Amino acid sequence: MTDEASLESLERRISKLERDVYSSAIPDPENKCIETLMNIHNRLQSAVTGREKITTVFSKLDDLQKYLDPSFKEHVSLTETAKLNLVLLEEDRIRSAVDSLQTVKDLIQYLDSEHIRAVPSLCPKLYEVSQAQIKLQEDAAELTTETRQLIANYDNLIMSLSKQFILWDSMLTEIEKGKIKKEVSS
């Protein structure tokens, strides 16, 4: 199929789809907009009549809209009593934070001392230590892999020896049974 033929086919399909969609959406020119809306309203009223749950939901739609509004949070504020209760509930945690901050304030003089400022930059040494740590981790991973391989080889060897011993045991048992039968028969 050529590009032109596929394009024409696609255009025909789109045109058919548009006709199908728009033909069902075109309002009847004889119906007025208000009449249509009244008809829909009457249908909704008849559907809702006698159903208390739906009526209750409709009556609470305004409240629901109010609670779902993003600005609702700004309008809700705590009373002074509620704020006081929150502070009292968190009193221990607040006191603990104050004590910790006081300790930091008391110890800040040691962090800003001349001795610490006089220390040359430790970044190059820290980098060397980091590189050594990475190398040690790689070596440990390699050693772990080798150890696992050795354990697997050991397990295979033990399994092979066990099978061999079982085979020899069964062979000896058969030989002993044969020897006992010969002695009994002679």
From TrEMBL:
Gene name of the encoded protein: NCL1_27135
Gene Ontology CC: dynactin complex
Biological process terms in GO annotation: cytoskeleton-dependent cytokinesis
Stated name of the protein: Dynactin subunit 3
InterPro entries named among the record's database cross-references: DCTN3
Pfam short name (any one): Dynactin_p22
